[in-house]
Design a protein that fits this description.
The chain is of the alpha/beta class. Helices cover 45% and strands 18% of the residues.
């Protein structure tokens, strides 16, 4: 039986047993824009909030996130759940989010394609923001048992703070980005404290097994902990943390229905008129982030036109780049580099009637995004390194016609599920060009077979299955008696620091 909203709702009611569910994330599921004097809610770009929002709508509870000046109030009742927002002072927020989270942890966990910046002031801001969120969670729990589900790398210290203050809490965390190889992790100056915070969790989730193994090995190198590899459990401070690899996903059914809506079809007509008579349309949809491999993709397209002159005038590539973290230097540099690459390819190969690459620097609404999915012969999801990447799954969910070809980086977590895609090395421009040529030449029966296989995976491994698996684990942990949990596991830890 497929997982869906109703099944998750029944499971949540049974497994939570009346315990309050508290979700914590840095980003709010809604941002608010002023339009005609009114605040209008919009859904921000990003896979994390897109994955969690449908889960919270059926499980209920409280979602705690960082606020902005535009949030209408610190507490809002939404469809199925309450949103509590915390307004963090600007300098503290910059040190936590722009500083430690995205100048240090983000490049470190994505194989340091930009050198991480480790500033003590940012670490202090990171620690303080984790403390502020801990205070809010503890207020919501009110000293009672509750289940807390922490999201991502912005709150590595939060689990330990929560368990120290209220041991009755059951705390789980999902790490949505890669966890680096232990040799890279050792670069982080405050690694023992970071790992200690994460081992405050009862349950710690990653997308793929390799990220979990990297975490285990980092713990073995840095802490006096016992790693029970056979059970994916780490004992530290006489308490266990269970590790699980559960790939996050999307609401396949809702996405498919919206992709077939009249609004999506209206956008399809508008985009078809704008793009003109091109024989083929290619697509990339990404945040403007240096991990996404966008300039490499544009250079591969130029090489494709060089080697295949017959494609000139017949293939138009639409690259959607959603502005992100624009205050950080690497992101500003990426924007300039991408602009330069697009101008170069269009100047070299374009004509009065044809533009090879159309670069859209904005966020698209879901129906406009799905319209491009449905129009495209191929979609390129070619990050240099990525935890999962839900764009790949969204493209697949949009293609009820069983057409279109997904070109997917081997270094995205999604590649472990979507083997029916054309898997590529994003660092190899000839391999990227070859994959595009293969996608354009692929016959309809093979396209149908590959897309049908990919859709079956995304349909079954949807976001409700992801949430259900983690909630079941947390419920099982919460039901264990404190004195007898995990009997037979070693309770006396021996130091194993390398």
């Amino acid at each position: 039986m497929l997982w869906n909203r109703n099944r998750l709702q029944h499971l949540a009611k049974a497994s939570l047993g009346g315990r309050k569910l508290i979700v914590v994330s840095c980003r709010s599921p809604y941002s608010f824009e002023k339009r005609d004097g009114h605040l209008v809610p919009t859904t921000p770009a990003g896979g994390l909030t897109a994955a969690l929002k449908p889960v919270m709508e059926v499980t209920g509870g409280v979602w705690i996130a960082q606020s902005s000046d535009q949030h209408p109030s610190p507490r809002i009742d939404l469809s199925g759940f309450s949103l509590r927002t915390l307004l963090i002072p600007n300098e503290l927020s910059k040190g936590h989010y722009e500083g430690l989270s995205n100048r240090a942890l983000w490049p470190l966990c994505h194989n340091a394609y930009y050198r991480p910046e480790f500033r003590p002031s940012d670490w202090e801001a990171y620690r303080r923001v984790n403390e502020i969120f801990a205070e809010a969670v503890l207020q919501e729990a009110g000293g009672e048992p509750a289940t807390v589900f922490v999201q991502d790398y912005h709150f590595a210290l939060l689990p330990r703070l929560l368990k120290a203050a209220n041991p009755a809490l059951t705390v789980g965390q999902f790490w949505h980005i890669p966890f680096p190889h232990p040799e890279i992790a050792q670069l982080f100056p405050w690694l023992p404290e970071l790992l200690d915070g994460m081992l405050g969790n009862d349950l710690l989730g990653f997308h793929v097994p390799s990220h979990s193994r990297n975490f285990q090995e980092s713990v073995q190198h840095s802490l006096a902990a016992y790693v029970e590899q056979a059970h994916d459990t780490i004992w530290y401070r006489s308490s266990p943390t269970q590790l699980r690899a559960v790939p996050v996903s999307i609401d396949f059914q809702q996405h498919s229905q919206l992709a077939a809506s009249t609004q999506t079809e209206r956008y399809m007509r508008e985009w078809a008129a704008r793009l003109g008579p091109a024989s083929f349309i290619g697509l990339g949809i990404d945040r403007l982030d240096y991990t996404k491999g966008i300039p490499d993709r544009i250079r591969a397209l130029s090489a494709l036109f060089e080697a295949n002159p017959a494609l000139r005038g017949k293939l138009t590539f639409v690259q959607v780049g959603v502005p992100s973290r624009t205050a950080l230097v690497p992101y500003a540099e990426l924007g300039r580099e991408t602009d330069a690459e697009v101008q170069a390819i269009n100047h070299k190969w374009g004509t009065d009637r044809w533009t090879p690459v159309l670069f859209e620097k904005r966020s698209l609404g879901p129906c406009e995004m799905m319209a491009l999915h449905r129009l495209s012969r191929f979609c390129m999801v070619t990050p240099l390194h990525d935890g999962m990447n839900l764009v790949a799954k969204e493209f697949v969910a949009s293609r009820a016609d069983l057409d279109g070809v997904l070109i997917l980086s081997r270094f995205a977590g999604a590649a472990q599920e979507l083997g029916a895609a054309l898997l590529v090395n994003p660092f190899n421009p000839s391999e990227l060009s070859s994959a595009i040529l293969t996608a354009l030449a692929m016959e309809r029966p093979e396209r149908r077979a590959r897309m049908a296989a990919a859709r079956a995976v995304v349909r079954e491994n949807n976001v409700f299955r992801w949430a259900g698996a983690l909630l079941q684990e947390l419920a099982a942990i919460a039901s264990l008696p404190a004195s007898g949990a995990y009997q037979g596991y070693p309770m006396t830890l021996s130091a194993g620091v390398a």
